[in-house]
Amino acid sequence: MTFKPKGLQALFGGTFDPIHYGHLRPVEALAKQVGLEKVILLPNHVPPHRPQPEASPAQRLEMVRLAIQDNPLFTIDTRELERNSPSYTIETLTTLRKEMGSEQPLAFIIGQDSLLSINTWHGWEQLLNNCHLLVCSRPGYATNFSDPQMQAWLAEHKTDDPNQLSHTPSGYIFLGDTPLVDISATEIRKNLNSGQLNSNLIPPAVMSYIQQQQLYHS
Asked: Please, are residues 140 and 104 in contact by the beta-carbon 8 Å criterion?
């Protein structure tokens, strides 16, 4: 079954271990800039490029649910959590593209750090055949590739016009002017472990769940 094209939708993947405002606020700002109608959060089960999450898949999914429960912009897709093999973005995008049909404008949200290392991703050359890339600014990262070939690839696909994202199904890269929220889940876990976390980094319902489940304590 194929869907009738809707407005621009975007996917945002991560381990969300735990989900925090460094994930949510830049994406909300990006949504306003480019007219995103829906952001689909994709929690990973087995991330290929990083250590395994501390919280279980069920706990991470519940934290994501709690974080977005009052925010109609976000929804959740659990397909990567249900796999026991590594979650490769290109495979998920290819499947979703088949489900949504060839006309649906679809984007994938990444950080500046991920953009600069995108040529290390499995099947990265196929990404723009399936989606646009929306890039959130990240503190401390360069805005250009050091490799001239990758810089030429960026220049070829880059757009500053959000309308192009909504009127074509895939193929563009948009560098968002998003707030630089310098929070990492690693830091949050470390602070939780030492009892020092400032709770304004995490949605209150998620914080309550972390305490109730006694997560991130060694």
From this structure: no
193: part of which helix (H) or strand (E)? helix 185-194
Tokens of 136: 């959130």
Q: List domains and CATH numbers for the chain.
A: 9-186 (3.40.50.620)
Size of the chain in residues: 218
Q: What is the dihedral of CA 17, 22, 27, 33, to 10 degrees?
A: -170
Token pair for residue 69? 């429960």
Nearest-angstrom CA–CA distance, 62 and 57: 9
Confidence of residue 2 (pLDDT cuts 50, 70, 90): very low
Residue type, 193: N
Cβ of 7: how many Cβ atoms within 10 Å? 11
| Digit-coded pLDDT (tens) for 85-134 | 777 899 999 999 999 999 999 999 999 989 999 999 999 999 999 999 99
Phi first, then psi: give them for residue 37, nearest 5 degrees.
-90, -30
166-213 pLDDT tens trace: 999 999 999 998 887 778 888 888 888 888 776 788 999 999 999 999
- Cβ-contact 133, 107 below 8 angstroms: yes
pTM score, whole prediction: 0.90
Q: Residue 60 has which token pair?
A: 């991470």
Six-digit token string for 71: 């925010």
Q: Which residues contact 209 (CB under 8 A, 6 or more apart)?
A: 59, 62, 63, 66, 215
State the DSSP code for 174: E
